[in-house]
What we know:
Blueprint: H1 22-31, H2 43-54, H3 64-80, E1 90-91, H4 104-127, H5 136-156, E2 159-160, E3 165-167, E4 172-175, H6 176-184, H7 188-198, H8 205-216, H9 227-248, H10 255-280, H11 290-296, H12 305-308, H13 312-317
Parallel strand pairs: 1-4
Antiparallel strand pairs: 2-3, 3-4
Helix pairs in contact: 3-4, 3-8, 3-9, 4-5, 4-6, 5-7, 5-8, 5-10, 7-10, 8-9
Amino acid sequence: xxxxxHRDKNCQINKVTxxxxxxxxxxxxxxxxxxxxxxxxxxxxxxxxxxxxxVLPENYELSGExxxxxxxxxxxxxxxxxxxxxxxxxxxxxxxxxxxxLDLGLWDKFSELSTKCIIKIVEFAKRLPGFTTLTIADQITxxxxxxxxxxxxxxxxxxxxxxxxxxxxxxxxxxxxQMHNAGFGPLTELVFAFAGQLLPLxxxxxxxxxxxxxxxxxxxxxxxxxxxxVDKLQEPLLEALKIYTRRRRPNKxxxxxxxxxxxxxxxxxxxxxxxxxxxxxxxxPGPMPPLIREMLENPxxxxxxxxxxxxxxxxxxxxxxxx
Length: 323
């Protein structure tokens, strides 16, 4: 069998990206010492090998180092994002029964809560082991690239299917119609569908925190100064999530890859979310709140503050201040 690379034969290969380019994955295997004779073309033989591998015992115990990482990520998540059971829910009757293009009262509340959520996501990032060792430019690039992913993941974990509602960090609970009217618009159905897909995974706070960290610390983001360093930081997070999910669900080995697939899903939703923000600008009476605008900007368009002397982005994101 012959594989072909559709890029520059230099693709980043890690646990998340390894299936994107079989050519570069195979080359990496050769580089680390795999024998070329080990490559089999016989599909039946390959299937037999896979079946044999499945029954091999695996150790799903976290090392001391990974256990410490899991605890730190879990704590960072829980201290910046209270779970649904910790919130005192409250509702509003504002445009609860009929869809409108935009309910300005709900939009004002939603934008206020989203701004607070972004601040908490920045705080979460700064608590992740190793994140602040990255260059300031890379920290900003990663945050601006993943902030919407994490924001969507967080709100979707607060979905209550019985009432078809989502709950924000102050306890405000909106139904599907109100979410549409608050600014989600055509994005509403996509977000609620994703929330429904999370339910069978039964993710706890630790898994949500680890998945958020994996979304954030990802070396394939555009314009990173040190993508290899970012990948190096992501590797133990992937290993920790894999072991933790297998240990928590020993009879459900498929849960870890299903969780990783949600990273790709979140990126798709975020792309649609950024498109929605463009149309939303024409619907709201004033400017987009500055922190939301900052995080929605394309990271590639971000000006290097060391050249321009502009520290606005650093101050807005809170990255210029020590944790």
